[in-house]
Amino acid sequence: MRAGQFIRQVEGYRAFVPAPLPPDPPPVLDAETINLMSRADRALGRLDGVTSILPNPDLFVAMFVRQEAVLSSQIEGTQSTLEDVLQFELDEKGADLPKDVGEVVNYVNAMNFGLGRLKDLPLCLKLIREIHERLLRGVRGGEKTPGDFRRSQNWIGPAGCTLATAAFVPPPVHQMHSALDNLEKFLHDDETFPVLIHCALAHAQFETIHPFIDGNGRVGRLLITFLLCQREILHRPLLYLSSFLKANRAEYYDRLTAIRQSGDWEGWIKFFLRGVFEVSQAATETARKILALREEHRQRVKHQALLDYLFEQPLVSIHMVQQRLGCGFPTAGKYVEQFAEAGILRETTGFQRNRRYRYDPYLSLFESPDFSPFTRPDVDEGDAQATETEAGHST
């Protein structure tokens, strides 16, 4: 009962009602946990420090945000890749893209919206609902009350399961609201636990409450980044755990289950800290490679404004360059060709008109295993079958 208890409902199924946070008794921070937390803190500090030496951090953050959106959405079964997202931004109507690319683009928009709102509004239930509404606006799950907490019972399990056969049933609605009120208070508690322990507890509790009909996993992963930024541990949103959780999906679900069944907060916290350390290490290395790449390419070309634009938008057309630089079309075309001759841009269409160009050296940093040892741009059949499902096969 440390983390809560399963309570049989009048309909016959058992729903889990979480105990309030913080856990009672509090998590035991043994020597292993302290060592993991120390390593994770140092790695996170190095990652945050990298942003101080980047010439324009916001240009680079955009790519990290897109990559996180792709990976977090792939956990929920989408097929879209980073390339698909960039193509969508380039030509939303004309490109032949997977239908679910809109879900990934919504994730990017929801993340950017939430980060902007944190400047005026602390992380709270109102902000969580606003993020959720933008996440599901006009895409799969858009009919499932975006921006509103559920008004009926949901459940988690394989497609076709029922409340009686579900792997996990979150708290009933009236107890869900009590748990959410407690979670909101805990989100504002910045004194009881170290930051990373605080993030670990909040994420797991949100996933247990499962307050929406759809989109819980994605919102829960966003909460981690929002908490780190709100607590000013990160000054730029560069840490995203989706690559780690995707690669360790079975253990991730097992750790959450162990909290509910035996109150094993300690095992979950160690797993979470290991993820923070490994992802921080990988992201720091990628940021350093970005900086080195920029310096190398600054030596090859004269037009620095166009080079900076490519770090923000690595798929471009001549028309886009014309608009960004405020020059004539022939001038923009000349600049683009100079970059192509220098090996920085590659023409991808083979057309004489409406040509598009790709900044291959930059994109390869995110598409190669070096970005993260866990990143893969595809979802296999096993991944799709393992996706959490709830009332109406929602995630």
TrEMBL record:
Going by the record, the broad EC class of this enzyme is transferase
Q: Which residues bind ATP?
A: E76, H210, D214, G215, N216, G217, R218, V219, G220, R221, Y252, Y253
Q: What is this enzyme's EC?
A: 2.7.7.-
Q: Where is the active site?
A: H210
Where do the record's region annotations for Disordered lie? Answer: 372-395
Which keywords are on file for this protein?
A: ATP-binding, Nucleotide-binding, Nucleotidyltransferase, Transferase
Residue intervals of the Fido domain = 123-274
Regions of biased composition (Polar residues) lie at 386-395
Superkingdom field: Bacteria
What one GO molecular function would you report for this record? ATP binding
Q: What is this protein called?
A: Adenosine monophosphate-protein transferase SoFic
Record organism:
Paludisphaera borealis
Gene it is expressed from: fic
